[in-house]
Task: structure prediction
Amino acid sequence: MSNKPIIALDFPGEKEVFTFLNHFDEPLFVKIGMELYYQEGPTIIEKVKEAGHEIFLDLKLHDIPNTVKSAMKRLAGLGVDLVNVHAAGGRAMMEGALEGLEAGTPAGKTRPSLIAVTQLTSTTEEQMQLEQKINLSLLGSVLHYAELTKHAGLDGVVCSVHEAAAIRDLCGESFLRVTPGIRLAGGEAHDQKRIATPDGAKKDGSSLIVVGRAITGAQDPVSAYRNVSKLWGE
Ligand SMILES: O=c1ccn([C@@H]2O[C@H](COP(=O)(O)O)[C@@H](O)[C@H]2O)c(=O)[nH]1
Result:
């Protein structure tokens, strides 16, 4: 897996995706999320792969262990590089996800890396305590989920940049810290609450950054991508 900024392809369909991708003349690392996958299905994965791009399939599975295991077995055959679940689904669910992924990875192919979402980057500490009734600091909750994820045998977590260094200290350098909520300095936060810049992410312990609207919504997406990459150090 490369270290390039992961571009979130949050577009309504294939046409918009390729209009965007055709501005670039290099292989990218892209994220396909719920909006695009639910509209286009697995064929969008094949087409984006054929175009030479690495893929993070961000479906954030969260269900009973058996259902997640079976779903992961199917997703493993798509040939993506990175997939995820919600850590709140629990240790048995995460172990099931890993088993399904291992069972479904075709012989001779590398198993996709598997990570778990801790607390969404759109969540504040106050909201988490009030709505999820978690009686911990936000960092405490994220560290708890990171440790649970590590014990389940997964490869890392989705978190914000604000928690990345503490997770690295607790779970080790090789345990991935994939961080959305990335904005260029002065950029609009939109619905994100725990944000950071690409250079802040590098300094504060992210392994990979996920960038959507700061690139896809820019007047010149290629130059926004170059700017993010430069600040990230890629
Ligand atoms: O905690 C999370 C988990 C996933 N995401 C996803 O990342 C991108 C971020 O997009 P921006 O436009 O850069 O805000 C988006 O696809 C989310 O679904 C996240 O933001 N936070």
